[in-house]
From TrEMBL:
InterPro entries: cNMP-bd_dom (IPR000595), cNMP-bd_dom_sf (IPR018490), RmlC-like_jellyroll (IPR014710)
Ranges for domain Cyclic nucleotide-binding: 35-120
GO MF entry, a single one: protein serine/threonine kinase activity
Source organism: Adhaeribacter pallidiroseus
Protein name: Non-specific serine/threonine protein kinase
Enzyme class, spelled out: transferase
Length: 194
């Protein structure tokens, strides 16, 4: 495994390369953190205290409604950012949970310090805005899929976007993410040519 800070820099450079002084300031906040399997890192009702950068492992953001129905909203895995982003940026209580599905290794940065730095440095602010714009674009695309696509089309789209996901994430969570019954998800795995 390569140096986690180098992995983070590579992701940042792909979003929007920042000047060396801004990178040094940004990189200084990130500390190693590990979590066990099925560990809830962010509870609904709590502010998101950290922004995570996933080095190893798989996590999910999920929601429980008043009837205890569960909705898996997003998966995170290396190399990507993780956590409940709206709660992080707004510093308001989260409506969602952030949970590890496998043992996980992260870098994490504390919210108050990182947000203050981002507000002070325009290149970091722009880089974050680029990342959020990409994320919003993906969310809008996912909404179209959920509302317009058949179960088979949603499954195929997921495999086009993330062909490795079947090996990373337990199928019950993938079925939930797609809004498909687990038995129908199993049928799709057998039916759709991968």
């Amino acid at each position: 495994m390569s140096d986690p800070l180098l992995q983070l820099k590579k992701v940042i450079d792909a979003l929007y390369p920042v000047p060396p002084a801004d990178w040094e300031a940004f990189a200084g906040f990130w500390k190693p953190f590990t979590a066990k399997r099925k560990e809830v890192l962010t509870q609904a009702g709590e502010a998101e205290k950290y922004l995570y950068f996933v080095v190893e492992g798989v996590q999910r953001v999920f929601y429980y409604d008043e009837q205890n129905r569960e909705a898996t909203l997003v998966f995170t895995y290396a190399p990507s950012f993780g956590g409940v982003l709206d709660a992080f940026l707004l510093q308001q209580p989260s409506r969602y949970y952030y949970e590890t599905l496998t043992p996980s290794v992260f870098l994490r940065a504390p919210a108050p310090e990182l947000l203050a730095l981002i507000n002070q440095r325009s290149t970091l602010s722009y880089m974050i805005r680029q990342g959020l714009t990409n994320t919003l674009s993906g969310v809008l695309e996912r909404l179209v899929e959920l509302q317009c696509y058949s179960s088979e089309e949603k499954f195929k789209k997921l495999l086009q976007r993330s062909p490795h996901i079947l090996q990373l994430v337990p199928h019950k969570y993938l079925a939930n993410y797609l809004g498909i019954e687990a038995t129908n998800f199993s049928k799709l795995i057998n039916k759709v040519k991968i």
